[in-house]
Amino acid sequence: MSARRPARGELARGRRHALAALAATALAACQSNPAPTTATASRRSQAASVNLQLGVGYLQQGNLQIAKQKLERALSEDPHNPQVHSALGLLDERLGKDKEADREYRTSLELAPHDPSLLNNYAVFLCSHGRAVEGVRSFEEAATNPLYRSPWAAYTNAGVCSRGAHHETDAAALFTRALQSNPAYAEAVYQASDLDFSQQKYGAARVRIDFFLTNNTPTPDLLLLGWRIAHAQQDDAGASKYAQRLATEFPGSEQSRALAATRANPG
Fold first, then answer.
1. Is the pLDDT of residue 3 over 90?
2. pLDDT in tens, 107-159
3. What DSSP state is assigned to residue 250?
4. What was the pLDDT predicted at 263?
5. How does DSSP assign 179-238, residue by residue?
6. 13, 77, 109, 162: which has the highest count of C-beta atoms within 10 A?
C-alpha cells in the first residue's frame, strides 16, 4: 500500500508504509477472488482453486518455495485461470523476476480484461517499478468498475502511486476522489492529510483529521500525524491532546513508541 518532511528517517519510513500497504492490497485482492467454481466444475478446476488459495496463503507467509509448488500445480490444473496467472505474477515479483511477473500479470488481464482485482494487482506492480502513469490508470479502471466493492481503496492507492512519482497535484485529486467515495476511509484521510502536512498546509490537514476523529474510530497513524501537525503549529495544548489519546488508546503501538522517543529526545 506516505512521505513525511520532518526528518529523513521519517520520510523513508513513511514511504515503506505506503508501499507495504500496496503490496498487502495486491495479496488480499488475489486471495479474496479465487478461481470461481460451480456444481458442475471439473475436478481439476476445483483442485486448481484450492491450490491457488494455498499458494497465496504461503505467499503471505513468505514461504516462496511452497507457494511456487502450489501455484505451478494450480496452473497445470487450470492454465486459463486468470487468478492463477496473477498470483504467479506476485510470486515472480517476490523472486525478483520482473519480466516474468509483468508477463504473468498481462496474461491474467488478457484472460479477464476488466477484472478489478487483477487490475489492482498489476497496478501495484507498475507503481512499485517506476511506471506510475500506467499504474494509476489501472487503479482508476479498477475503481470505476461497478463490480469493485472498495473503489476508495483503489483511488487511495492511485494517489500514493502518484505521490511516489512526485505528482503531488494528481495525488491530492485522487485522495479527494477516495474521500468522496468513502469519507470514513481512514487511510485516505491519512494520506491526504500527510500530503498537506508535507506542503505545510497545516490548517487543512488538521481540520480533516479532527473531523474524522470526531465521527470515526481513530487510528494510531492519524493521532501521530495530528500531533506532528499541532507541534508544527506550536499548539502545545493540541499536541498534548493527540499524544494523550495515542498513549491511552494505542499504548503498545509503533506510533506510540515513536512519539515517546521523539518527546524524550526533541533535538
1. no
2. 999 999 989 999 999 999 999 999 999 999 999 999 999 989 999 999 999 99
3. S
4. 87
5. HHH-TT-HHHHHHHHHHHHHTT-HHHHHHHHHHHHHHS---HHHHHHHHHHHHHTT-HHH
6. 162
Count the neighbouring beta carbons within 10 Å of the beta carbon of residue 128. 18
Helices (H), the chain: 8-31, 43-61, 64-77, 82-94, 98-111, 116-128, 132-143, 151-164, 168-181, 186-198, 202-215, 220-232, 236-249, 254-264
What would the grid cell of residue 24 be? 498487502
Distance between CA 196 and CA 1 in Å, rounded? 19
Distance separating alpha carbons of residues 143 and 178, to the nearest angstrom: 9
Q: How many CA atoms lie within 13 A of 210 on its CB side?
A: 13
**What does residue 129 show for φ and ψ, rounded to 5 degrees?**
-125, 35
24-42: average pLDDT: 57
Nearest in space to 139 (alpha carbons), one of 108, 100, 178: 178
Q: Which amino acid is at 11?
A: L
Q: Are 51 and 71 in contact (CB under 8 A)?
A: yes
Which residues 6+ apart lie within 8 Å of 177 measured at CB? 143, 155
Number of Cα atoms under 13 Å in the Cβ half of residue 36: 4
